[in-house]
């Protein structure tokens, strides 16, 4: 069996052609370009191409598979790949060790996403990069005002209602004097801030457009408390849910499991491993805190683990984040949306479930997206307007006015006269037999109907 092991570098790479039968090796140093690797794959005709997971391994793996080679992208975090007690470490030694371990079957392959999914994952990560640049620019602007003793609004108000106050200090750098150079720097940073905000808006719109056409992102968003940003990161990291055998592997993949040290009778668990994507782990913890407001099941899990102890709040949040990741993976694997009844069955299988939590899950309404929420609000506004018009018509004794989109017919002369005569009469006064006028005080229900008629929206 011929094994082609690649020790990839940024500019140059070392290729080792290893024959497992004769144990002979051949080394070639080549530039890390598509043309050179395509020629090497064509000339060597290897049975297996092995490489370490790094930046260029994505397109090199695609190129080798396109030419019909079997590939193995191995993880350098495994114990077999760690160097220990060696006197020499070179690129040739790395490539030869990679080939020998592949021949012995000691290497563990990692999942390589498709080109389309790698681009989507890169865009999700780039959104967070732009967000970090915006925060860094805002902090630099705030530092200048603090150093010069000038107060600006706190929080997000400084960049909306307080932006005019900040802009009053900006000045082109060419027009600044020796004692006001910071105003020129402020002008440059504000220009960068506006540009970054515009770019971030474009990236978010593109991600939302992708999410509307991706059933996986829609499915993950059905979990109460999980928004579009969390769903995008989970789908980008999990990719193919069938590559995980169980939920423990998913938890370990995100680094949300405790470290373990066992020796003899000692078995100690430490902090979480923090392996895997740090962005996904951060977003999952934020999602866990947010889901306490919208998801009764998440709140029940948090309270059960926390046990009303202040020292266990963060541990409970980490545990809830792990459970959310596992639930999202199971939903993607089974291609099922969030179902409160299913959560009741799963929770009761581990023990007794509180009656209040069970009732809240049973009466839980399905989660709405933005379009569904807008449609529901329009229907509610239309129903409120029609109810207000009907109450107003009952108060005045007239028939409710029906709105038509094609146009309204002109009222007849009798209806116009009846309307005019009704309008001339004061509804607050009535005639008494003795000729005196008595003022009529409107009831509470009439006052409420009048207010509702006044505040009723005029359009859907």
TrEMBL record:
Ranges where the Transposase IS116/IS110/IS902 C-terminal domain occurs: 218-302
Protein name in UniProt: Transposase IS116/IS110/IS902 family protein
Compositionally skewed regions (Basic and acidic residues) per UniProt: 365-392
Biased composition (Polar residues): 395-409, 418-442, 450-460
Stored NCBIfam families: transpos_IS110 (NF033542)
InterPro entries: Transp_IS110-like_N, Transpos_IS110, Transposase_20
Entry's Gene Ontology BP terms: DNA transposition
Region of interest called Disordered, as start-end residue ranges on this chain: 354-460
GO MF: DNA binding; transposase activity
Species of origin: Allorhodopirellula heiligendammensis
Pfam short name (any one): DEDD_Tnp_IS110
Domain Transposase IS110-like N-terminal: 6-143
């Amino acid at each position: 069996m011929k094994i082609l092991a690649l020790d990839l570098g940024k500019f140059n790479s070392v290729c080792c052609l290893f024959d497992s039968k004769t144990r002979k090796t051949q080394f070639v140093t080549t530039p890390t370009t598509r043309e050179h690797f395509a020629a090497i794959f064509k000339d060597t005709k290897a049975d297996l191409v092995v490489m370490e997971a790094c930046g260029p391994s994505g397109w090199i793996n695609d190129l080798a598979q396109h030419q019909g080679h079997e590939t193995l992208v191995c993880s350098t975090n495994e114990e077999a790949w760690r160097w220990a007690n060696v006197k020499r470490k070179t690129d040739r030694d790395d490539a030869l060790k990679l080939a020998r371990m592949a021949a012995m079957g000691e290497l563990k392959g990692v999942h390589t996403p498709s080109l389309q999914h790698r681009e989507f994952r890169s865009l999700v990560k780039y959104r967070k990069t732009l967000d970090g640049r915006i925060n860094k620019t805002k902090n630099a602007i705030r530092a200048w005002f603090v150093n010069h003793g000038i107060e600006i609004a706190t929080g997000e108000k400084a960049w909306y209602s307080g932006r005019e106050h900040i802009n009053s200090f900006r000045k082109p750098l060419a027009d600044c004097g020796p004692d006001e150079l910071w105003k020129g720097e402020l002008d440059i940073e504000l220009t960068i801030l506006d540009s970054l905000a515009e770019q971030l808006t474009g990236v978010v719109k593109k991600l939302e457009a992708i999410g509307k056409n991706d059933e996986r992102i829609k499915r993950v968003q059905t979990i109460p408390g999980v928004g579009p940003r969390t769903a995008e990161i989970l789908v980008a990291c999990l990719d193919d849910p069938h590559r995980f055998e169980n939920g423990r592997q998913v938890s370990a993949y995100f680094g949300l499991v405790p470290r373990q040290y066992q020796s003899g009778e000692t078995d100690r668990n430490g902090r979480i491993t923090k392996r895997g994507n740090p962005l996904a782990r951060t977003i999952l913890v934020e999602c866990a805190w947010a889901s306490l407001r919208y998801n009764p099941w998440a709140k029940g899990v948090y309270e059960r683990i926390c046990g009303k102890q202040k020292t266990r709040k963060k541990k409970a949040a980490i545990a809830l984040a792990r459970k959310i990741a596992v639930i999202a993976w199971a939903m993607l694997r089974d291609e099922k949306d969030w179902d409160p009844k299913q959560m009741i069955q799963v929770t009761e299988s581990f023990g007794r479930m509180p009656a209040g939590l069970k009732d809240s899950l049973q009466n839980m309404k399905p989660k709405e997206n933005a379009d569904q929420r807008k449609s529901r609000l329009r229907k509610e506004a239309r129903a409120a307007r029609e109810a207000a018009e009907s109450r107003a018509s009952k108060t005045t004794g007239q028939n409710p006015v029906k709105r038509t989109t094609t146009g309204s017919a002109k009222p007849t002369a009798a209806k116009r006269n009846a309307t005019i005569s009704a309008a001339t009469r004061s509804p607050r006064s009535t005639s008494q037999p003795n000729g005196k006028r008595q003022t009529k005080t409107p009831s509470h229900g009439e006052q409420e109907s009048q207010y509702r008629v006044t505040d009723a929206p005029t359009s859907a």
